[in-house]
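Sequence in, structure out. Go.
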Amino acid sequence: MKPDLGAFPFRDRRYHFSGVGGSGMTPLAILAVSLGAEVTGSDRNFDRGLPLPSFAALRDGGVRLVPQDGSAVTPDLTAFVYSTAVESCNPDFQRATELGVERIRRGSFLAGIAGARRAIAIAGTSGKSTVTAMTAHLLLEAGLDPTFLGGGAAVRLKGAVPPGSLRLGESEWFVVETDESDGSVAEFAPAIAVLTNLSRDHKEIDETARAFESLLEKTRERAVIHCGDPILGRVRCPNSLSRLYVSVEGASTWTEPDLVARSVRLSPSSVRFEVDGTKVSVPFPGALTVENALLAIAAAVAAGVPLERAGAAMATFGGVRRRLESVGAVKGIDVFDDFGHNPVKIGAALEALRPKGSLWVYYQPHGYAPTRFFRDELIEMLRAVMRPKDHLLLAPIYDAGGTTDRSIRSEEIVEALRKVQVDATLAPTREGAAREIAERARPGDRAVVMGARDDTLPAFAREILAALEEHAGSRTPAPITRPAR
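Output:
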């Protein structure tokens, strides 16, 4: 018997989800159906005829897909749920406004569901999808049977439904990823809050810090905070709230940590460390993997899981799709697919990927406003991280439609990068980019596709693999594990 959802009853309720194909909207719509609601969904990519995996998952989950023309928004709807990609000029949004149908943002809708459970809310500007999936895995391995809803598809999470970002559990525990980009993180009232880090991302740092403070003010039991992140020290925590501080040995901290990752050992395919004498092994590379795993272990400990049990369970974590996901390898050339889209995430991913040979980075900026917001930081990060033998293929900026200012172009980013000696080239077509990588990459090199929002990027990573296979004439099997950030 699932717990009562209180303010969010679903039986005999009708919801329309606009922008339903998004990574956060798809599992939420399926969750609403599983709780007894009737759900319709629309998406501009569905109207374009794109055969995205999310649409098949939605149909299988009981969501009826309809055109995004306002026709599904009717007076008898309980509410209209929309993603941040849906603007006020969207036909669905306009129709809901005309009819006076209640409009609820995706994050607010999710916060309402989470408030009726014993939620563990994961917040931060990097790594939170991985920490959310890790925490769900640890609770599941400890027998706590949580519900899970993340921003990325968890690989091999027992009981997860396609596309992998949702698991329906029978207990009161709900492990959920929050969203600072729309401010809805401030609306969650969880049992346990986890703060992974804080950087300039969708918003300026001070604005995001205030949203994190609102989350902590509403947290009922305990907060897990990464005190090795210098900027999180700005976030004020209520004195009455119990806190569990974590950090990696050697990091500069602003308070005494309760759990420390010591004896850290990094390898090309895994990380190892110790926490209070408990040995931890995670089958994915990168220094950020250590931080993410430590935060997930601390979240599980805060939920009552013994440290030794949580640490041991990390060895069987399966990763998250598009978080340095290994697509395959051809003649010693590895291909990866990654969600990295801001300077911090891109930089961490490239450092984790560092090959003996060259890096071939195909990056598609995920929107005009974010590219303008991050322009200078992106250039500086790439100048610092890219080596002379690495290559950046910069795609045109992803255009999600709407009324945004389109005055910035990838060409000006390429020009600025060349001035600081980064080997950057404009990649006007994917076919040309795949061909260049296939013809020029050598054994020991690694290629990675990076970017957010565009659901066709994973398919392009596999097109690069196919181009390499065609050029080489044979294929080396992909490794079983998939690196995660």
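Check: The CA atoms of residues 439 and 471 lie 7 Å apart. Confidence is low (pLDDT under 50) at residues 1-6, 474-485.
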